[in-house]
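pls design
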């Protein structure tokens, strides 16, 4: 899925592509919010990318839940990862933050049942889901209850 060059789209709404057969999407820089379940149950969705200078601030609850994404680079502008936003993403291996995620709030069960996820920080450090719990409290502004439950193999 490709948006028109210079798109002014600022929101991808709740359930926008839910259960669709979309395979890839490039999110325009103008999008600030990904709504709840906007790509939920998109079992063919394997690639998500963001235009340079993305202004995305929030990834909604269950936004990518049950999708087939393999990697995602969270833009520097993101402040909130919603509840269960990457839950049941069984093929997800890498979640890369473009900046130190100390200003990022991670909702409960954000990566639940995503058994292979690895969190990668801008410093080059990377951690398995189980290791995230051993990080300094300041690594994320908030980590919700059960954010990584059943994530480690």
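designed seq:
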């Amino acid at each position: 899925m490709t948006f028109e060059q210079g798109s002014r789209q600022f929101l991808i709404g709740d359930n926008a592509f839910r259960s669709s057969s979309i395979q890839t999407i490039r999110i325009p820089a103008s999008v600030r919010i990904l709504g709840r379940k906007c790509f939920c149950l998109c079992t063919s969705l394997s690639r998500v990318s963001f235009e340079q200078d993305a202004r995305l601030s929030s990834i909604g609850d269950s936004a990518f839940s049950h999708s087939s994404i393999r990697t995602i680079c969270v833009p520097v502008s993101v402040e909130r990862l919603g509840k269960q936003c990457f839950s049941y993403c069984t093929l997800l291996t890498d979640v890369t933050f473009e900046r130190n995620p100390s200003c990022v709030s991670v909702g409960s069960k954000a990566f639940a049942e995503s058994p292979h996820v690895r969190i990668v920080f801008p410093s080059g450090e990377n951690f398995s889901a189980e290791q995230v719990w051993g990080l300094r409290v300041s690594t994320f502004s908030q980590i919700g209850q059960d954010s990584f439950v059943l994530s480690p193999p």
